[in-house]
Amino acid sequence: MVPVEGGRIFTRLCLPAAGATDALVLINHGTPARAELRASVTPAACSSEAVRWFLARGHAVGLPLRRGYGETGGVYMEGNACGCLLYTSDAADEGLG
Predict the structure, then answer these.
(1) pLDDT tens-digit profile of 16-66?
(2) Angle at 95 between CA 94 and CA 97, to 5 degrees
């Protein structure tokens, strides 16, 4: 568990066999289609393809479970939208890209 404001976040930490020689990589999980499945979400295994790719290049890999998911538990604190209304290709003209 990693302490954060208001609680703790369950995080699996995967380390390269020779020790980490590069930056920490965080890989986040997706969101299940049904809210009742959030409690059963687990982080990827250290043996998963994406994790192995980073480990082979000297990175430590953290796999956190956000609030409201799996072992972290608690109240779901997020939405699935960014709250930004600039979904157009001219976002750069607005100073956002």
Answers:
(1) 998 888 889 999 998 888 999 999 999 999 999 999 999 999 999 999 999
(2) 105
- Single-letter amino acid, residue 38: R
**Nearest-CA neighbor of 12 among 48, 41, 39, 44?**
44
Q: How far apart are the first and last CA of the chain?
A: 35
Per DSSP, the residues of the chain read -EEETTEEE-EEEE--TT---S--EE------SSGGGGGG--PPPTTSHHHHHHHHTT--EEEE--TTSGGG-S-----SS-S----SGGGGGGT--
- Other beta carbons within 10 angstroms of residue 19's beta carbon come to 8
